[in-house]
Specification:
The structure is a single chain. This protein has 195 residues and is α+β, with helices and mostly antiparallel strands. Helix content is 16%, strand content 27%. The protein is built from five helices and eight strands, in the order ααβββββαααβββ. It has helices at residues 4-7, 11-18, 101-108, 113-116, 120-127, and strands spanning 22-25, 28-39, 65-70, 74-80, 88-99, 143-146, 154-157, 171-174. Strands 1, 2, 3, 4, 5, 6, 7 and 8 form an eight-stranded antiparallel sheet that branches.
Amino acid sequence: MTDRAFYGRSVHEVARDLVGCVLRHGPTAGRIVETESYHESEPACHAHIGLTARTHTLFREPGVAYVYRSYGIHALLNAVCEEEGTGAAVLIRALEPLEGLDEMRARRGLQRPEDLCSGPGKLTQALGIGLELNGSSLTDGPIAVEPRSEAPRLAEGPRIGITKAADLPWRFCDADSRHVSRPWPPAMRRSRVAA
DNA sequence: CATGGGATTGACT
DNA sequence: GTCAATCCCATGC
């Protein structure tokens, strides 16, 4: 289990260090293979507009889960980082499924492991993470994050799916995983190795 | 109080 | 490649 100090650092460092960690909720678990970092100083971050009812969670203490609804349909999971009062978080974008695959298949209505968690909305559905977990603790709550044993090789690139500050290279992928969401970062498109 | 857009996904051409 | 689904909330009148 990660501790609060792990999250109380630069959001970009945390985003890098979360790749390779195991995310767990109930009987389902997966290895984090893709993250993006967001900081209040740039307009793509929800916290950029300041403290509102929606962004309240982003300004809380490090190690809290920020879960919000995207496009009216999907729940997206973030880990709140840096000091309390600073709006910054790491978006968990993809997992390599490890445990509870059948539970994930039932929730997703799909079979292939690489389709179960290869996107931020997909993984919350697969793990059963909903908006009710917004504000819950990642260090002592229903969602757990377990430290990695070794650091994966990272592929970095611009964040995707956003219109503002789209040039910042704050997307971090496990360069050797085939469970990363599409499109893959340029550095990963040439040669592929099995996960 | 009305409106528009978004850190997405899946289905379709 | 395009596009609709669907809803919270920020913004503007």
